[in-house]
Amino acid sequence: FNRYTAGQFRANDHLKLAAVCRELNERRVRWAVTNSETPFVRKLFDGFNIRPIASRREINLNPRNRGMTELLTTNY
Which residues does residue 34 pair with via DSSP β-bridges, in sequence order? Predict the structure, then answer.
Protein backbone atom coordinates (compact mmCIF):
# COMPACT_ATOMS: atom_id res chain seq x y z
CA PHE A 1 0.00 0.00 0.00
CA ASN A 2 2.97 2.29 -0.21
CA ARG A 3 2.49 3.50 -3.78
CA TYR A 4 -1.15 4.61 -3.82
CA THR A 5 -0.91 7.61 -1.51
CA ALA A 6 1.46 10.52 -1.15
CA GLY A 7 2.09 9.75 2.54
CA GLN A 8 2.71 6.03 2.05
CA PHE A 9 1.98 3.35 4.65
CA ARG A 10 5.32 2.29 6.07
CA ALA A 11 6.54 -0.25 8.63
CA ASN A 12 5.95 2.16 11.53
CA ASP A 13 2.34 2.60 10.39
CA HIS A 14 1.88 -1.17 10.37
CA LEU A 15 3.26 -1.30 13.92
CA LYS A 16 0.78 1.37 15.03
CA LEU A 17 -2.11 -0.45 13.37
CA ALA A 18 -1.21 -3.72 15.10
CA ALA A 19 -0.90 -1.91 18.45
CA VAL A 20 -4.37 -0.40 18.04
CA CYS A 21 -5.77 -3.82 17.18
CA ARG A 22 -4.21 -5.31 20.31
CA GLU A 23 -5.62 -2.47 22.41
CA LEU A 24 -9.08 -3.01 20.92
CA ASN A 25 -8.74 -6.72 21.62
CA GLU A 26 -8.02 -5.99 25.29
CA ARG A 27 -11.19 -3.88 25.39
CA ARG A 28 -13.10 -6.80 23.84
CA VAL A 29 -13.88 -4.84 20.67
CA ARG A 30 -14.24 -7.08 17.63
CA TRP A 31 -12.21 -6.02 14.59
CA ALA A 32 -11.18 -7.24 11.15
CA VAL A 33 -8.24 -6.03 9.08
CA THR A 34 -7.03 -6.93 5.60
CA ASN A 35 -3.40 -6.47 4.75
CA SER A 36 -0.62 -7.63 2.49
CA GLU A 37 0.52 -11.25 2.62
CA THR A 38 4.00 -10.82 4.07
CA PRO A 39 6.00 -12.43 6.88
CA PHE A 40 6.17 -9.01 8.58
CA VAL A 41 2.36 -8.69 8.71
CA ARG A 42 1.97 -12.30 9.84
CA LYS A 43 4.40 -11.64 12.71
CA LEU A 44 2.63 -8.43 13.72
CA PHE A 45 -0.70 -10.20 14.05
CA ASP A 46 0.59 -13.45 15.49
CA GLY A 47 -1.93 -14.88 17.93
CA PHE A 48 -4.99 -13.68 16.03
CA ASN A 49 -7.03 -15.48 13.39
CA ILE A 50 -5.21 -15.04 10.07
CA ARG A 51 -6.73 -16.35 6.85
CA PRO A 52 -5.38 -15.88 3.34
CA ILE A 53 -7.99 -14.57 0.92
CA ALA A 54 -7.92 -14.08 -2.84
CA SER A 55 -7.88 -10.46 -3.92
CA ARG A 56 -7.62 -8.48 -7.11
CA ARG A 57 -5.90 -5.18 -7.80
CA GLU A 58 -7.08 -3.26 -10.82
CA ILE A 59 -4.15 -0.88 -10.37
CA ASN A 60 -1.27 -2.87 -11.81
CA LEU A 61 0.98 -2.32 -14.77
CA ASN A 62 0.78 -5.97 -15.74
CA PRO A 63 -2.80 -7.31 -16.05
CA ARG A 64 -1.53 -10.85 -15.39
CA ASN A 65 -0.40 -9.83 -11.91
CA ARG A 66 -3.73 -8.41 -10.75
CA GLY A 67 -4.71 -11.51 -8.79
CA MET A 68 -3.06 -11.75 -5.39
CA THR A 69 -3.44 -13.02 -1.85
CA GLU A 70 -4.14 -10.84 1.15
CA LEU A 71 -4.51 -11.70 4.81
CA LEU A 72 -7.82 -11.31 6.59
CA THR A 73 -7.05 -10.98 10.28
CA THR A 74 -9.69 -10.99 13.00
CA ASN A 75 -9.85 -11.28 16.75
CA TYR A 76 -13.04 -13.33 16.65
Answer: 72
